[in-house]
């Protein structure tokens, strides 16, 4: 055991002298060494989160720090590391020096801890300035697109990004980028319960039970080995075959063939869209994109429609048909037009995908999967969603009974991309409606741009979410 923290200057407030040294496991010595990326990963019970929280709190007493604590999704402050930091403030007797508020933690010298979710708060994330350290908890769930937003935001000189996570799949972006492909900007430490000298007996007993009854789970949960596949993965077999046949690769865009766009419309969730071409017998998935209300510019008075239209236009593709789910036909509160009508009046050819059960949609997706080619870069987040889309695992009656899978997939972050893929599977087999005359489509598009044909209500509050709200 080593003493890693140097004597701390006395804060400007409080009567209690702060601790001058705290013991850290050797695996966490790296937290006190300068490096852009610090990656702490492995199994449960390693003490990573506690160690990071202690290191940040001590550093925050030594000098003023702006610390941003993030995760991919955070619907409430209770899902953040706020409680971990608060508990460590109490454990280290630092209550005299830190003020804990509902959504912030402040130190006496200007140190500040903030807490955010990345995926649903991209605009807020981009607005952060002067961050010294960003702690990314459950970093394995952070998508490539979220990293592309977060990393440029943490741009202060000598700023650092710390990550903690238990791995899931070897194909997850965070694991590949920061573990398998780590460069000299990274310090990477794998930690398990064996690295934690304070590993509690209650967890040791739980670990031994898991080792006895489910060794594969023990390898992942406690030793930090990657899973071969997620239990209950809906498309596990199909994706494995696609990889074996090298259908997840660089997929060329055929300029002479229009690109169809398949939507899953979000309200509280993200809106997801797949861009696909039919070239011969191949279904080429070129790009995947998702966004929610926080991605909509504040001056977008269309409630989000313009954002997606501009994104589609920005791809440079020749757009063929926009496929929308059945609920796009309904007029929403605060708008005189349905989503279908708005897209049509924007000059797009639209088809409504018939409403099928989730089971029927999954079966349709499995049928067309062997003809699908995925662009590995443009569709990375979508492929990741398909990999993590899984059925619910039912609890066993006893330790000797096999676990059963529900007929219902889990509804989580992976559902948006998977739902849009189901609409792609069903929509891509629909007979195409006859194309409008080019001149008529151009004329309608021009009218829409001049505001003659499309009416948008500005009533209904200032949340700017429109049909997504």
Radius of gyration from the alpha-carbon trace, in angstroms: 25 Å
Quick check: average pLDDT?
A: 84
Strand order of the largest sheet: 5-6-7-4-8-9-3-10
Q: Biggest sheet: strands, sense, closure?
A: 8 strands, mixed
Strand content: 15-25%
The tally of strands reads 19
Helix content: 25-40%
CATH architecture of the largest domain: 2-Layer Sandwich
Structural class: alpha/beta
CATH class of the largest domain: Alpha Beta
Which oligomeric form is depicted?
single chain
What form results from the Cα inertia axes? globular
Query: Low-confidence stretches at least 5 residues in length (pLDDT < 50)?
Result: 1-16, 450-469
Query: What's the number of structural domains?
Result: 2
Number of helical stretches of at least 4 residues: 14
Span between termini: 53 Å
CATH topology grouping of the largest domain: Nucleotidyltransferase, domain 5
């Amino acid at each position: 055991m080593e003493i890693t923290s140097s004597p701390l200057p006395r804060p400007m407030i409080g009567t209690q002298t702060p601790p001058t040294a705290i013991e850290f496991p050797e695996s966490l010595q790296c937290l006190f060494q300068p490096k852009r990326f610090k990656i702490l990963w492995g199994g449960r019970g390693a003490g990573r989160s506690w160690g990071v929280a202690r290191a940040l709190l001590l550093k925050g007493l030594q000098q003023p720090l702006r610390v941003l604590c993030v995760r991919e999704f955070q619907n409430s402050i209770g899902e953040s590391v706020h409680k971990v930091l608060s508990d460590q403030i109490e454990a280290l007797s630092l209550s005299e020096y830190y003020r804990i508020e509902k959504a912030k933690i402040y130190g006496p010298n200007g140190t500040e801890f903030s807490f955010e979710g990345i995926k649903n708060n991209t605009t807020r994330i981009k607005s952060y300035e002067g961050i010294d350290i960003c702690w990314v908890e459950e970093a394995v769930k952070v998508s490539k697109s979220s990293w592309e937003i977060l990393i440029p935001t943490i741009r202060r000189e000598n700023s650092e990004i710390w990550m903690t996570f238990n791995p899931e799949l070897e194909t997850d972006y965070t694991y590949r980028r920061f573990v398998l492909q780590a460069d000299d900007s990274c310090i990477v430490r794998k930690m398990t319960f064996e690295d934690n000298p304070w590993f509690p007996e209650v967890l040791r007993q739980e670990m031994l039970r898991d080792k006895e009854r489910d060794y594969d789970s023990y390898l992942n949960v406690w030793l930090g080995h990657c899973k071969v596949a997620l239990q209950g993965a809906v498309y596990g077999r199909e994706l494995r075959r696609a990889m074996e046949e090298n259908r997840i690769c660089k997929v060329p865009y055929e300029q002479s063939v229009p690109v169809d766009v398949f939507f899953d419309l979000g309200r509280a969730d993200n809106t997801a869209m797949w861009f696909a071409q039919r070239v011969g017998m191949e279904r080429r998935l070129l790009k995947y994109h998702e966004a929610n209300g926080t991605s909509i510019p504040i001056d977008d008075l269309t409630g989000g429609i313009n954002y997606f239209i501009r994104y589609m236009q920005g791809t440079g593709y020749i757009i063929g048909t926009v496929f929308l789910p059945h609920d796009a036909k309904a007029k929403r509160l605060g708008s005189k037009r349905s989503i279908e009508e708005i897209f049509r009046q924007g000059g797009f050819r639209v088809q409504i995908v018939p409403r099928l059960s989730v089971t029927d949609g999954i079966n349709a997706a499995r049928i067309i999967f062997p003809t699908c080619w995925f662009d590995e870069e443009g569709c990375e987040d979508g492929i990741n969603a398909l990999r993590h889309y899984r059925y619910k695992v039912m609890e066993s009656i006893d330790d000797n009974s096999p676990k059963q899978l529900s007929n219902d997939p889990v509804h989580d972050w992976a559902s948006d991309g998977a739902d849009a893929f189901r609409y792609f599977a069903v929509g891509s087999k629909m007979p195409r409606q006859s194309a409008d005359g080019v001149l008529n489509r151009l004329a309608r598009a021009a009218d829409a741009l001049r505001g003659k044909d499309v009416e948008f209500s500005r009533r209904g509050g200032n949340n700017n979410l429109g049909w997504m709200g």
